[in-house]
Structures are given as structure tokens and as C-alpha cells.
Write a structure and sequence with these properties.
Strand content: over 45%
Helix content: under 10%
Strand order of the largest sheet: 1-2-3-10-5-8
Structural class: mainly beta
Number of strands: 10
Largest sheet: 6 strands, antiparallel
Distance between the termini: 22 Å
CATH architecture: Sandwich
CATH superfamily: Jelly Rolls
Radius of gyration: 13 Å
Oligomer: single chain
CATH class: Mainly Beta
Number of domains: 1
CATH topology: Jelly Rolls
Length: 97
């Protein structure tokens, strides 16, 4: 079965949701250079990020981590987070539960 993808444009970039169920969500995120995402609604979800292109800076409760192309990073639920693209465009896959 082919699933219809949902594309959402934001001021910071674009999200393409390619799987969405009661137990998980999977999407492609594109963050434009110099932009950030602070989405408090995701704090209740566990997320794993895989960077396809660029260098992502993840800020977790004030501590910053760089995640480069080809690397993955897991974020537990209950942790305040923001995603930044300070060095250029960033493309990533995000799976959350």
C-alpha cells in the first residue's frame, strides 16, 4: 500500500511526514541555514534523528551537541530540546514515538 505523504512548509524549512500512526511518526525535516526549531509539543516524545546532509546542532536543556552527516542521535522524552542549522542547510530523518 502506498501512503500519501504530507508536506508542511514552515518559516524555518519543510517537514514531509511519511509515516504517522498511534505509536510512531516518521518524517523528513529540512531546516534552512541559520534557522532553528523549538517545538515543545515533542518534549513528550522519544525521538531519534539521523542527519542526511549538513551539521545539526541539538540543544538539550542548555547543552549543545553537534550531529554531522551520517550520524544519529537519540533524545528521551521529557527533555526540552531545540534543533539548529547554524552552519548551512540541514536535512534529517526523525522518528518519534
Amino acid at each position: 500500500m502506498i501512503i500519501e505523504q504530507k508536506k508542511i512548509n514552515y518559516p524555518w524549512g519543510q517537514e514531509t511526514v511519511w509515516a504517522d500512526s498511534d505509536s510512531y511518526r516518521a518524517s523528513l525535516l529540512a531546516i534552512h541555514s541559520g534557522n532553528s526549531i523549538l517545538d515543545m509539543s515533542k518534549v513528550s516524545r522519544k525521538e531519534t534523528v539521523y542527519v542526511l546532509y549538513g551539521t545539526l546542532v541539538i540543544e538539550l536543556e542548555g547543552c549543545k551537541k553537534e550531529v554531522k552527516k551520517g550520524q544519529s542521535f537519540h533524545i528521551e522524552s521529557g527533555i526540552e530540546r531545540s534543533l539548529h542549522a547554524p552552519y548551512g542547510d540541514v536535512d534529517m530523518v526523525v522518528v518519534s514515538e
